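--- STAGE predict ---
source: upstream dedup step, 1 unique chain passed
mode: sequence only
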Amino acid sequence: MERNEQQRIFDGWLDEHRGLFFKVVRAYAFNQHDQEDLFQEITTQVWNSIPKFRGDSKATTWIYRVALYSAMAWSKREKRHRDGHQTINGQEHALLQTSKNKNPRLDWLYDQIGQMDEIDRSLTLMMLDGHSYKEISATLGITESNVGVKLNRIKKRLTEKSNEETNHGL
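--- STAGE serialize ---
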């Protein structure tokens, strides 16, 4: 593949799926510096993956797969480097705050997603974007029935947590 064609595809994917990139970044990185690093890592991996894309799946499924695996690998590397320490402002979400109107419910949801293990984060993000169990299964390499079971458990936990916080005035 020629570099010009690769650049055209990359620019199109980045423009069309920018929200997908930012969702993954926000779910795996919690301060501005880390979000910038992870965004760069994901975009680099997506760029590098373009020649391997054969169109057997939708571009969004491909991008999700590359972005999620990149985020998981980045997260593991960061944990080793930091040895379990977080920055003081560990819950900053600067990259996605493109609007001056903050949405506390959306912030709450991202905080909850950030506390999930990597597979549950990935499942949740793809579910919120409307991907089918089949697409999620293909992207994450788990069975469709496992996707369903995990998503039902995630929904139940999120509902319970939301009700708990609502009942306690949080």
